[in-house]
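Example pasted here:
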Amino acid sequence: MHALFVLLSLCSLSHSFAVRQAAPQHGLCRFSPNSTQDEIMRDPTRFEDNIFYWDAQFHTDGIGYHSSTGLVISHTALGYQTGLPSTLSPEYTRGNPRHEAWHIMLLTLALNGTDHASTFVYPVNPTDAGEIAASILTTKLNTYIAFNQSFPGYGGFLPGLEVNSAIARPSYDWRNKVSAADNGRLLWAVYALIHVLQASDRSEFQQLGGNWMQWFLYARRNAKTVFMQGQHAGEVCAISTLQEDLSPSASGQRYACEDPTCLNNDPYEGELMSWFLYFSSTLNKSEADLLWDAKRPQLLAANYTGSIVDTSRHQYGSVNYEGNSIFGRHITPITVQRGLYFGSNEQLKLLFLPYLDVPVIYRVFKNGERVRTCNSMLMGVPGMYASALNGTSSTSGIRASNATLEYDAIKNAGIPSVAVFKEQELDVVTPYSVAPTILFDKSNGLAWYKNMLDGKQMQTVYGSTAATRLDGSAVARFVTWETKAPTLLALLGGIVDIVRDGMKTDKIYDEFYQRIESEYRNVFDDESGMAKPGATSILGENVAFCLPNAQMPMSSLIDFSSCDSTP
């Protein structure tokens, strides 16, 4: 490990919490059915306050993270009847860099004095949240450093992890390999963190920022070596293979793409690693430009229409997902960026970088949320789609081993008609699918969020459950970072304001703006006179966001005994 890395001991404040009792003003954890859609559309403040308070219970030692290592617990399984942590306790819990990013973003916003982020970090006394956040971040950085000393081949980056109270190690399915997209999230989260810490008037926070900067610079120095191993110039491996016990400069170290045809060249959240590499001091101008040459073919336009609402799971045509003909409301064509599946998870880059500063991007992505909300309304679906965990019955879906808990994940969920891949699983909706909607219309997004939380077993003493089946037969009995943090961060505007300020300080904001504006004008005609000939006109901006017109069905499920609607 680089000599500049030494184990830290900055903060000693304890950040281990017991399960907390409800503050009187927040009432029952089963609060969603007590609010109406009309109330949320008029003023979502009380509903939003309750979301943050109850999801904050997830930020508890042993539930959402380990206080001894500072690392996240990606998901915690819940008992079928109680909604409390399952007795199937694994020897190790799972963690990964994308969930580390969510954690660091919320800690950063708490350090920056954001009220709701402070509530999430320490709801018992939010005024102490900055101290708590600094303590966790000190412990977390120590763990990152120790991990890299034990596994130097990762070059400072993180693979999927197995974590217990003492150590972190690569998970069995991430030995000797590492993800570009997941680490792209982590790097920009740390970028924002460093800028907040270094701007503090407290010397101990400035020192912590300097220590995180050393980790950041070490990863930046190795990024090209670890990830830019494609067969052609400018190609970035989606997953890089490596020798985890050898340093990046060791003679026997070999970095390569796990699959040379599987590249990190998408225009979705994988783009965060591309930006990190683009601004890396180890790339010259020609190499940086080649990143965009490799990515450019993936950025495509698509028009959603209400005349052919979508393809069903089994056939093509103007039908909803149950195979019934669609009649009634017509939606004019709406122009969007074509998705891989067009799940909400593909838009999460908007929580990191100031994409929406660029008018053409703002218009296209706002259209995306017109489509997302109106597609579900037209289909009579009571929620929206994103990559999520599947529903689990009382006996299925969770398998215990001596290493971890396994689960069934659905990745191919979205809107087929505006996606590259048409074969999708559309039986499960997840609350965090509202995250990009919230960025454009908070009340509308929270109305959809409430609609999903109204389903049985969709609320726990740790906040929202991960997902629910549309027929109400089962929920994904987990509390997870991936299905909580995007919603919370969208309500806070992400880390965009901090990153924008950092980019301006580092004199890279103008280059970011001009480059990404040019890329989108290659595909979308924003009537500026600067778009590329043949670019697609942006249609459908007159369409209002749609509200739910269907409810989660009543089912045999009973709300968790620890979080029912009975006072």
User: Anything to note?
Assistant: Residues 203-227 form the longest helix (25 residues). The CA atoms of residues 16 and 61 lie 5 Å apart. The first strand starts at residue 75 and ends at 77. The chain has two domains: 31-58+300-552, 61-295.
